[in-house]
Amino acid sequence: MPMGNLKEFACAITEELTECLNGMNEEEVNRLYSDILGAERVFAWAPGRCQAMLRCFVTHLSQAGKIAYMVGDTVTPAIGKGDLLIAASGAGHNIGVAGIAERARGYGARAALLTIVPESLCRNASDYAVIIPGRTAACGGIGRSIQPGGGKYEQSLLLFLEAVVIRYRAEQEICSPVKEREILPAAVELAERIRRIEEGVKEEAADSVLRAVEKTLSSDNRVFVWAPSSRPRNLLRCYLMRLMHMGIRAFVWDDTVCPEIRPGDVFILSDRDGKHPMAKYMAAYATAAGARVFLLSEEKPPDNYPECEAVYFPVPEEWKDPRMPGCLYELSMLILLDAMIAKHNENLGFMRTAAFALHANLE
């Protein structure tokens, strides 16, 4: 059924995530968490947008005190006995994921697969699977979704893993007030908080980003995204992937293949507290080059970004966790950007399943 504004799309997405997380099996979740606790080191791997989700997880898990790596990074050591590999593949048919899981087990590590389907090539290559009942273009899946591609699965994957880190941090702290909190209720609570944050975003500001990006389809202009820190940059990269599926030329600023900014381009910048000097420099640089610049932020910097059109995510002070700064802002940013993709799909009507089938090998 057609929906109205972006807030309705964003809130509908959070409802999808709540449904998905409530459908997960607690025994599977506890098995994975026990393996994380018992592992000497945790390694993670996934292709496509799922890789960005796992990178966010590895960042927070490392900051919580657990030794964790992304497979393939320059500093990643060899996996071995006593280690745990966490792999993600929605449809479970990715040959690369299956091959990495098999090799990890061959070196004595355990391999856990986060997936939608219980039986697949990747599942057979892993020790066990944790089922996340989402959907992807490659395999369909469980339930319905207003989103194209694998958005429901990918977002649920990230919220679930964020809740794992919340539980892990609490377990490391003596007298923690959330020590006994279960993982899935914590993930559902994250989804509810995101919904309330999205309700506080100004519709006019968010809709300006939507319209500016859509206009690039009928012009020779491009979309650029950037953030000064790795987690929001990874999530902006997820948005970029969907734009590219739509046929929009999109780039992460400072990537190797990134061209120069031209007049009429759109530049989307994330700066959580509105104070990062490099982000302010980039806003001024893109404006001077003739781009239309949008700032995504958790705070309201009145004078720091005079050249930007701002979209603020009103995260209540009592929800901000100093141990995981920016967590709710980053998750809310991802959901709003993916709501824009769902809205683009409705507005333009050209993001068909066939287009996503071209990328099904990345699921």
Walkthrough of the structure:
The protein has helices at residues 6-22, 26-38, 48-63, 95-106, 121-125, 151-172, 183-200, 203-215, 230-245, 277-288, 327-348, 353-357; strands at residues 42-45, 68-70, 84-88, 110-115, 128-131, 135-136, 140-141, 223-226, 250-252, 266-270, 292-297, 309-312. The protein is an alpha/beta fold and 363 residues long. α5 links the parallel β4 (110-115) and β5. α6 runs antiparallel to α11. The longest helix has 22 residues, at 151-172. It is globular. Residues 175-180 and 350-363 have low confidence and may be disordered.
Briefly summarize what is shown:
This protein is 47% helix and 13% strand. The chain is α/β, with parallel strands linked by helices and 363 residues long. The strands form 3 sheets. The protein has a 5-stranded parallel β-sheet, sandwiched between helices.
Strand order in space, largest sheet:
2-1-3-4-5
Number of strand elements: 12
Q: Report the helical percentage.
A: 40-55%
N- to C-terminal distance? 27 Å
Helix/strand-derived category reads: alpha/beta
The quaternary state of the protein chains shown equals single chain
Describe the secondary structure blueprint for this structure.
Elements: H1 6-22, H2 26-38, E1 42-45, H3 48-63, E2 68-70, E3 84-88, H4 95-106, E4 110-115, H5 121-125, E5 128-131, E6 135-136, E7 140-141, H6 151-172, H7 183-200, H8 203-215, E8 223-226, H9 230-245, E9 250-252, E10 266-270, H10 277-288, E11 292-297, E12 309-312, H11 327-348, H12 353-357
Parallel strand pairs: 1-2, 1-3, 3-4, 4-5, 8-9, 8-10, 10-11, 11-12
Antiparallel strand pairs: 6-7
